[in-house]
Write a structure and sequence with these properties.
3-stranded antiparallel β-sheet, 6-stranded parallel β-sheet
Length: about 525
């Protein structure tokens, strides 16, 4: 099966199955060729298909290519917060471009979304995809433990993942981390040797020879890395001497960490992350095995390694869904159950509360999953994304506007673009079921006015230019769109600044420093608990 991995060949070859991230949504207003993904092509040759973005190439198609009719969204719970808000806006354009009118009826694509941790899914799906009807699969049955497709069995029948909470009064969290790492690594070595060591290829202690450390921030991970590289490594070499009173043989064995700790974070390149994942799957006796891996929340999804069995979580994660997703990375083999050690800071009220209710909370932590927030038509979201989806719908939805230099042709097609106003304003009206009729109509009129103003401003800009293109590509034609972080944006007149469109949904505003001062004006230093 041929696989295409570069954007331009994908737009031309049009595979029947496409895997992508929501980050690619940002290309819609910038790249006219993206319209081909929605079946907006009318010509072809041996190299692929062509639409209005490439006039004159290929021979005419006998019919039309269908738009995507099935969209599968994995890890729905991640499409929330600021990212989900922007995705909800861009989904307005995607849904409109995927829809087709057949016999007077609007047919929209079918959407299947999967997640393990979500609450109020109907509200999130309505805000993201504009759908009222949500069918849960598998549907609830008479026994919540048996859905026909999956069955929950008690720990007496199948080994369950074990959670242990540690909170030490009068000890810093770094000391607790150090002693926990030493105890787990030394005990694992003891049991590994007792079970035959490397000679036993099916050593039952092997999953616990790799310790996966989870951290809530890069700052915490960086400090802990130094502890692992220095103190853990040096103390572990003679840890077998640690015994109880009158104990002839200790619980620990000496151990030498062969390789430096691996890191799975956003500051590590993707090719290195891929290598580390492959090393994590290696048995402990194999070369390049990993003793200690330190990670942030990037392991919450995509780390599916059944060998891993031991995790230490430093501090309670911010959300219950994050805690569930991250700790589910270990203990995926029922014959080798996972062990999760959660280190809690007794001086933090939230950590203390989780520690005091540790058994009760863990027996029902799915009940604590937080509802997600998706607000695609909030004032700030409209400011950041309304221009992008307006230009995307106008450019890709009208063949005469798609080619790069055709931004000037709004002078001819302005009246034809009323469908853009209707599509966006209708979506705004129905995206939140909690709005009453008056509030929904007010939001609709506000968004409608905003989109009409953008189209009228676009027409006014074009009337003052000899030529106009969507982005600065070739020639001297000025661009219509600007990146929000483009330094040239500040030099443009106010009407041109309305057309800001992100090049990536990961784009953020410039960072700022924040200093907290006491009433006397002196900077407050952070205290290490």
């Amino acid at each position: 099966m041929p696989i295409v991995a570069v954007d331009e060949p994908i737009y031309q070859r049009l595979p029947s199955f496409i895997i992508a991230t929501v980050d690619k949504f940002a290309n819609l207003p910038w790249v006219g060729e993206t319209g081909a993904l929605f079946g907006l092509v009318d010509r072809y040759d041996k190299d692929g298909f062509y639409g209005p973005a490439h006039p004159g190439r290929g021979q005419a198609l006998a019919g039309h290519l269908p738009a995507p009719d099935l969209i599968i969204q994995d890890e729905l719970h991640l499409i929330s917060g600021p990212l989900g808000t922007m995705v909800g806006l861009y989904e307005t354009a995607i849904d409109e471009l995927c829809s087709r009118q057949i016999n007077g009826k609007k047919l929209r694509p079918k959407i299947i979304a999967s997640t393990a941790t979500v609450r109020r899914a109907s509200k999130q799906i309505r805000a993201l995809f504009g759908r009222d009807a949500v069918d849960i699969f598998p549907p609830p049955g008479p026994d919540r433990r048996d859905s026909f497709f999956a069955k929950t069995v008690p720990a007496s029948i199948s080994n369950a993942r074990t959670y242990v909470g540690i909170a030490a009064q009068g000890r810093s969290l770094k000391v607790v981390l150090l002693r926990t790492y030493l105890a787990l690594l030394g005990a694992a070595q003891k049991h590994y040797q007792a079970a035959g060591g490397a000679k036993n290829l099916d050593n039952p202690a092997d999953p616990y020879m790799t310790l996966l450390g989870y951290f809530n921030s890069l700052r915490e991970l960086g400090g802990s890395r130094r502890i692992v590289e220095d103190e853990v490594n040096s103390r572990l070499a003679r840890y077998s001497l640690r015994k109880r009173v009158n104990e002839t043989e200790g619980l620990f064995a000496d151990r030498q960490i062969a390789y430096e700790p691996a890191e799975l974070t956003s500051r590590v390149s993707t090719n290195v992350v891929a290598e580390i994942k492959s090393y994590l799957a290696l048995l402990f006796h194999e070369k390049k095995h990993i003793d200690v891996a330190l990670a942030t929340n990037m392991i919450s999804v995509g780390l599916d390694i059944t060998r891993l069995g031991l995790m230490v979580v430093l501090g309670q994660p911010k959300t219950a869904s994050e805690y569930i997703q991250s700790t589910s990375r270990v203990g995926r083999d029922e014959n080798r159950p996972g062990l999760v050690i959660t280190l809690l800071n007794i001086h933090r009220p939230r950590d203390r509360s989780h520690y005091e209710r540790f058994p009760a909370w863990h027996t029902s932590f799915y009940r604590s999953v937080e509802a997600t927030s998706v607000t695609p038509f909030s004032p700030r979201a409209i400011d950041r994304g309304i221009a992008a989806i307006t230009v995307a719908l106008a450019r890709l939805g009208h063949p005469g506007m798609t080619a790069p230099p055709r931004a000037i042709d709004i002078l001819q097609h302005r009246q034809d673009l009323e469908y853009v106003v209707d599509a966006i304003s209708d979506r705004a009206e129905m995206h939140d079921k909690e709005l009453d009729a008056v509030e929904a109509e007010a939001l609709r009129q506000k968004v409608r006015g905003r989109v009409k103003d953008l189209l009228d401003t676009w027409e006014h800009i074009a009337s003052q230019k000899i030529s106009l293109q969507y982005q600065q590509e070739v020639g001297q034609a000025p661009p219509l769109l600007f990146d929000p972080l483009d330094p040239e944006l500040e030099k443009q007149p106010m009407e041109a600044r309305k057309f800001k469109a992100q090049r990536s949904l990961r784009d953020v505003e410039p960072t700022v420093n924040l200093w907290v001062c006491n009433p006397d004006g002196f900077e407050v230093e952070e205290e290490e608990k």
